[in-house]
Amino acid sequence: MVRLFNKAPKRRNNFIRKAPAEYKGRGASFRPSGTKPAPARGGWQPLQLDKRIAFITFAFVLFGLIFTYSSSAFDSTAYFKRQILFDTLGIAAALFLSQTYDKLQKLKIFSPMNLMYVTWVLLIVVLFTRAQANVHRWIDFGFFKLQPSEIAKVTLVIYIADYLNGVSGKLTKNWRLLIKPMAVAGITLGLILAEKDIGTPTLMGAVFVFMLLVAGARLKHLAVPAVVLAPLAIQQLFFVSYRRERIFSFLDPFATAGSSGYQLVQSFLAVGSGGWFGKGLGNSELKLEYLPAAHTDFIFSIMCEELGLVRVVVILVFFCWLLIRGISLARVAKTQFNGLVIFGLTITICMQAFFNMAMAIGLLPTKGIALPFFSYGGSSVIMTLVMMGIILNLAAVDNTQNNLREDITNYKNRNK
């Protein structure tokens, strides 16, 4: 399979070990053309962030706040204030990581395996917390509910990227190298599945497979694990009563409109009643306790009702733009680790968005998957912005390296 990233080994340039220093001769000053003076030793300059990713992030946060307020029926102000707090914390984390992640990842305490250990501890602890809505997904600190599965989305991508970077170019020849990452992913997804959550493991499993494929794994290497896991998937889907009911209601929601198909039917009514141009911001009728989870999992249905099909397509276009831009940055990354992390986090956000939208319009069975940036919730919003901060950092680091290479090339050409 054609790999996404360039696996050519790096060649060390023994002739030029660092960027050329500024030359100050007799009454003259020379620097490579198009460059700025070097900062004073010990000085700090912020990384230049990718403007398109930053703009998309800002737009999503802004519109997410608007629709959190608009989609809440009776407690709109309370939800809006809390969402502002969550977004503020998430933006602060994103800005911090956008400037420091490349340095933090070099510290031993933040090694990918250590991050996985912490994630596993949290995923085990949550299983012993008080059940909420018959599931164990949140650790309640009183002032904040932490959802460990949201953290796992980030840490698993970082671990897999680090491992695949270490075995670069060997996957096609030795399938045994896949055993360790599959074991780590299996433990993580199994713990999340024990929370009675099948949507998140499905999403993370798909991201894991995509990362393996772009790193050079072959489909035939993944066939055996797929066959082994098939009975488990069948058991979870068809032998767990409430999941079986969801599948049957997905196939014919109007036949079960008074029971398991109620939420999907109400979602259809919200999407359909919006028409081409919607009822207007804040004018949704289905949010008035007709559609359950209107401000969380089914916020996209309310957006369709208030904005209409034409305007909602703009949101879809923005997610497609994020996907295309993220993959473009991954392709030009100068290390496989950077490229895989950018790729993994980008498709995590975009696939989750597409899953949520597909669920709202009946293309997938209903499942508790949030719409990134838009659905109300602390852990989801903060960790989504953490992902964007990491993407911005790794893209900015590669950009800086590109500028340095251009400076050196210009310097050499001027002195030939």
From TrEMBL:
Membrane topology: Multi-pass membrane protein
Biological processes annotated in GO: cell division; peptidoglycan biosynthetic process; regulation of cell shape
Chief location of this protein within or outside the cell: membrane
Pfam families with a match to the protein in the record: FTSW_RODA_SPOVE (PF01098)
Reactions accelerated catalytically: [GlcNAc-(1->4)-Mur2Ac(oyl-L-Ala-gamma-D-Glu-L-Lys-D-Ala-D-Ala)](n)-di-trans,octa-cis-undecaprenyl diphosphate + beta-D-GlcNAc-(1->4)-Mur2Ac(oyl-L-Ala-gamma-D-Glu-L-Lys-D-Ala-D-Ala)-di-trans,octa-cis-undecaprenyl diphosphate = [GlcNAc-(1->4)-Mur2Ac(oyl-L-Ala-gamma-D-Glu-L-Lys-D-Ala-D-Ala)](n+1)-di-trans,octa-cis-undecaprenyl diphosphate + di-trans,octa-cis-undecaprenyl diphosphate + H(+)
EC primary class: transferase
InterPro entries in alphabetical order: Cell_cycle_FtsW-rel_CS, FtsW/RodA
Annotated localization: Membrane
Family stated for the protein in its record: Belongs to the SEDS family. FtsW subfamily.
Name of the protein in its database record: Probable peptidoglycan glycosyltransferase FtsW
Organism: Candidatus Avelusimicrobium gallicola
Lineage, broadest ranks: Bacteria, Pseudomonadati, Elusimicrobiota, Elusimicrobia, Elusimicrobiales
